[in-house]
Amino acid sequence: EFSGGRPDPTALRNYFSYLYRIGGNLQYVLLFGDASYDNRNVTEEQVPVISYQTIESLYSDRSFMSDDFFGIFEAGKGVRNDDLAGNLDIAVGRMTVNTLAEARVVVQKLIDYTTAPDSRGNWQNYITFLADDADKGETFHATQADNLAKQIAAKYPQFNFDKIYLDAYKQVSNSSGQTYPDAVRAVNERMIKGSLVFNYTGHGNSTRMSQEHVLTSSMVELWKNKTRLPLVITAACDVSHFDDPNILSLGEKLFLQKDGGAIALFSTIRAVYAEPNYVLNAQMYNYLFERDEQGNILTIGEAIRRAKNAMGQYELNKRRFVLLGDPALQLAVPHNKVVIDSIDNHAFADFNDVLRANQRVRLVGSIRNYTDEKLSTYNGDLLVTVFDKPQMVETLGNDGSNTIEFEVQKNILFRGWTTVKNGSFEANIIIPQDIAYFTGNGKLSFFANDSIEQTQATGSCFIPISGSVETETEDITPPEVAMFLNSYDFVHGGITNENPLLLVRLSDESGINISDIAVGHSILLIVDGDEHNSIVLNDYYTADKDTYTLGGLTYQLLQLSEGEHSITLQVWDTQNNVTEQTLQFYVVNSSEFSLARVYAYPNPTTDVLNISFEHNQAQEQLHVTLFVYDMMGNNVAQLQQEITAQAKNVIQWNCRTVYGNRLQNGIYHCVLRIRSPRGTEQVPVPKIIVR
Q1: Residues 193-201: what's their mean pLDDT?
Q2: pTM for the structure as a whole
């Protein structure tokens, strides 16, 4: 009806306009498929979903594609002198999939993002700003990023910010150019910890962000952040150049990555310019966290539609920004509020004291909806994070440019869980000795999750932190430390894969120190004795629920070489007592299945035998078979189990034959066969005695 059966972007646009006008309810269009600059298929590349391309093809500034074309319906608007004029009437997004497998990946990511209980956490309180350094004196990248952070903080103080400004990190020069290894580590760690929004301002192209390769496709492959997916915003050229079938752009990689990456991107298809980028970015934050008339957070697509319409200029530049993702998706902004009602039995509205070092503090609060009504049926857990006062950081002027100063508030004094019951909570926290002893406001940040309804709440308040109190008794006992890899039954000297997950349990009567204000008092991880490249793990520690004396942390180790390794953990308590512990282990590349330490117990046995084994296939599905032979070589018993691999696994056999009869007393040989996605391994088990 609209094109006579021929592929035609104008026909699609006219069809959408028709639906919009006859029903009036059309709000979103999702283009489900990749695009190509070659709509006529001259190159014989398959084009899943046709795209709008400007007429110009020689002048790069005016040669681009834009999905905005499909959402402008006003008469006399749309294509005009090769420009796209007019306001967006609907929100348009695209899923750049080419295969059924890719489609399943992105759809499952959407389902998990909106429904999976483990896809909720304190990462929903964080917004990350990554800013390029000052190539050619361009300090405005960091300045623009910082202005955006200030804009959000002024209106939405519940958010915490991770500011990764390249010029604030040491630049390293080598044969391949300039790099920022510490900034790359900061990006990787933030993605693993999670961020609601990840915003980049600077130079880029279809393979990387920044000339120094601070974010690349190979980095994305290492991220395991599928339960903490950010919206990625890139104010940089070409990051999501998806209409060239011969390349897989960085933006597409982030969107299509199976076990992580991003839930959506508001990103660029062609070259763009810094000033209009900043204007659009700022407009985006005017709407991204706003609520509609029903009190719901605006969808990503609606926020983009309003932001673009509000610009009123820079028509060409804003058209090169596209949404990779579902325009009807709501960002995972916590819907409800956390409110502090009292501190140490003083009503919060009347509280005019300060929090002090060594002080035990009692916080009482409640969970409320956006109209400030207490939610008396809210039950779950609440995370309390106490930040020290903000401090000023100066960039380094790595490329000979002027330096700038910016504010950060990231030194955490306490982080721990407490119980929420019937919409109320009480949290007992401790302020460590190591605080900044100048005047200023600390920040209390809150995240709550209802374990039944799976709804979240967020909030914050600012309280002066200064001075100290005397402790009643002197604490000279250091913390207790227990370290494991991949699972809590890992043993010293065991084997693991090349990317093991470090698991740590800590305990101390005065609580664990996670403040980094005092040099050397952090939770410090040293790999293979390399103290010069030690890793600070303060941000990974959280106290257990309803106590500050117990807690734990997890940290993903990456790309360890095959062979023997050791890790040493140094931990301080809040009274500056220190302890140190070392764990030794052996890495076997997970591409080849490997077993170790296979043994049976109790041996001799009467009715139950446990077979324990270690391996290098963490979290993989294993098919385990135990064969039991008598002294004549007859197969008298067989046991099969499907298990999810831990660092060490144990299967149990009831000492009965395949017919259910108890084995006769005697000596038996056993063989353990394990099949994993990486192969099959078969090993003998030491002789067992049944009596």
Answers
A1: 97
A2: 0.86
